[in-house]
Amino acid sequence: MDKLDQTDKTILRILQTDSKKTAKEIASMLNLTPSPVYERIRRLENQGFIKKYVAILDKKRIERSVTAICQVSMRYHDETFIDEFEEQIQDLKEVQECYHMAGQVDFILKIHVKSLEEYHEFVRYKLSKIKNIGVLNSTFVIKEIKHSSEYYI
Amino acid sequence: MDKLDQTDKTILRILQTDSKKTAKEIASMLNLTPSPVYERIRRLENQGFIKKYVAILDKKRIERSVTAICQVSMRYHDETFIDEFEEQIQDLKEVQECYHMAGQVDFILKIHVKSLEEYHEFVRYKLSKIKNIGVLNSTFVIKEIKHSSEYYI
DNA sequence: GATGAAAAGTTGATAGC
DNA sequence: GCTATCAACTTTTCATC
Predict the structure, then answer these.
(1) pTM above 0.90, yes or no
(2) Which bases of strand D sit closer than 7 A to a protein CB?
(3) What is the DSSP letter of A130?
(4) pLDDT at A148 exceeding the cut of 90
(5) Does CATH place domain B6-46 in 1.10.10.10?
(6) Contacts of residue A111, Cβ cutoff 8 Å, sequence gap at least 6
């Protein structure tokens, strides 16, 4: 009930690249009728393999051209400080990703802003207002080589 | 023709969180009829604001639980070496994101694998086979604080 | 730009193999 | 787990305001 067969995997691969493909289209790619494809997709959703369906926007088109990677280390590593940091990061709309890391650096953040000026304001008025940040090291993306929401299956 | 009004922005915000919402549902959220919503979505697609629609999978469910951030510096910075690196990275299915950075580190990669053992094999048999890599520094995600495909609009 | 209606296509359910 | 069929709903188009 929780195992994926080859048909399931193919369906997931297709939906990861284009979720607007209809059950009918997928069915014809797999030499099936739409019904089993439809049922499998429903099952993959219910069993939690598919979390959601989203539109991917072009960041250049919506003025989020600057991508920064920001590495943060905390001054103290009390549980409370860490929890507080995590909570406050959730509310920062410029932060698209944030990971708690093993190693020297505590957190890695991916940030999207309109310009370097906006990044400066983000760091000055939002990020550095969070308590207990020790080291804060920002680098900027000069070219996006690969950026995908797909996982290899 | 290329400017977004408030209605466009609301539609984009909705589609970024749930692209399965029908034109009818969005219309009722905006106190409109489905037709103008439908036309706006078509326009947002044609003008390149919406790049694509995808299904987001649960990485734990499909055995890609380990996320690594790998920072790579090149030995030499010739154009040919850089181009070659970028090309070869495209073909590595474990690499979900790769950015060419300004600063000390040349590239930052986000990698998804099943286990640390698989990561070891990835580095040993795939990544380190790419020519001209000088420094290679891997860290692992111990907790995902935030991970979204949405941009703030 | 929006409404409203109508044609074409998809979804989702059900019966049967 | 599949095919075939069908009603309900959505998408898509278009005349009209």
Answers:
(1) yes
(2) 1-5, 9-15
(3) S
(4) yes
(5) yes
(6) A67, A68, A69, A70, A94, A95, A96, A119, A122
The residue whose two tokens read 């990044």 is: A119
Q: Where are the domains of chain A?
A: 6-46, 66-140
Query: What is the three-class DSSP state of A97?
Result: strand
| CATH number for the domain running over A66-140 | 3.30.70.920
Minimal CA–CA distance to A98: which of B63, B142, B115? B142
> In angstroms, what CA-CA distances link B149 with A18, A69, B120?
15, 16, 28
Alpha-carbon distance A27 to A35, whole Å? Answer: 8
Tell me if chain B has a CB within 8 Å of the CB of A126: no
CA distance B43 to B119: 43
| Nearest to B128, CA basis, from B70, B57, B76, B78 | B70
Provide the b/e sequence for A9-27 (b: ≥16 CB within 10 Å).
ebbbebbbeebebebeebb
- The answer to whether B96 faces chain A, any CB pair under 8 Å, is yes
Indicate left, alpha or beta for A20 from its phi (over 0: left) and psi (-120 to 50: alpha).
alpha
Task: Report phi then psi at B21, rounded to 5.
Answer: -60, 130
**A-chain residues near B37 (CB < 8 A):** none
The spacing between the Cα labelled CA in A38 and the C1' in D7, in angstroms, equals 17
What residue type is A80 in one-letter code?
T
Task: Give the mean model confidence (pLDDT) for residues A58-73.
Answer: 97
So what's the pLDDT on residue A131? 92
